[in-house]
Amino acid sequence: KTIMFCSVVIRRTLRRPSQRYYSLAIARRLPNSFINALSSGNETVNLNIAQAQHQTYVDTLRTILPVLELPALEECPDCCFVEDTAIAIGTTAVMTNPGHDDRRGEVESIRKVLENLGMEIIDMRRQDAYAMCDGGDVLQVGDYLFVGLSLRTNEAAARLLQDAFPDKTVITVPVPKQVLHFKSAVTNIGHSGLLVPTGEIGDGLLDSTPFNDLQVYRLPMRLCNVVCCNGVVLAQPRSDDNSRKVLEQAAHEQTMEEVRYVDTSELAKKDAALTCCSLLLDV
After folding, report:
1. Predicted confidence (pLDDT) per residue in 172-182, tens digit
2. Which end of the chain is more exposed for a tag (fewer CB within 10 A), N or C?
């Protein structure tokens, strides 16, 4: 199978996505070694604040659905970013091969958890030696799987994901170099809406990607990464009044019940986004 045909076909065939209901979230405690996690910047992290913010995030998720919170892996400073270790849709999970060598030790323990949940496991690490992927580059919206081609995710991974999820249409998206993951810039809101950054980065994404039949909402990039889960939107509180109004109006139009604001600004010093701190399952 090939991925590149999508830019031609999708403009005619995109359909309104159906609802996705999540039954479980997986999270992992933030380790003391988090201060050594990978980062594109050099800001100093206050570990106590980071751990408190992460726990608030997990506790907020628990008000929406059950959360399986795993112990920290001190040998893996980035281990709380569980989203990057697997792409899970229904009862199938593709274990990723993270794009940075230092992240690869995080995958096996998540694999064991998913196996114990009875999921069918496809291991990217064994399927294709050239494939690399971070889950933060993969966004499912209905029947479509947007795969960001970034420094952490490549075409080989996109082809493997198309084979693993044959009922989905994979659409590859070039990720700007100044953006770590596709979902750092674009996430879904509701079942047919997308949050896309204002400015040059968002303009480029819209020019390169066929989002045709999805409703696009433009916001500052710091607000474009949200977690949509069972009628609730989790978003960052750092915003001006107008941006909050746009976000809350988008949530209303997409029949989301409410927006809750969760501050993970200390985690963001290590390039964290809201989505990366949980792996949502619809098993």
Report:
1. 999 999 999 99
2. N
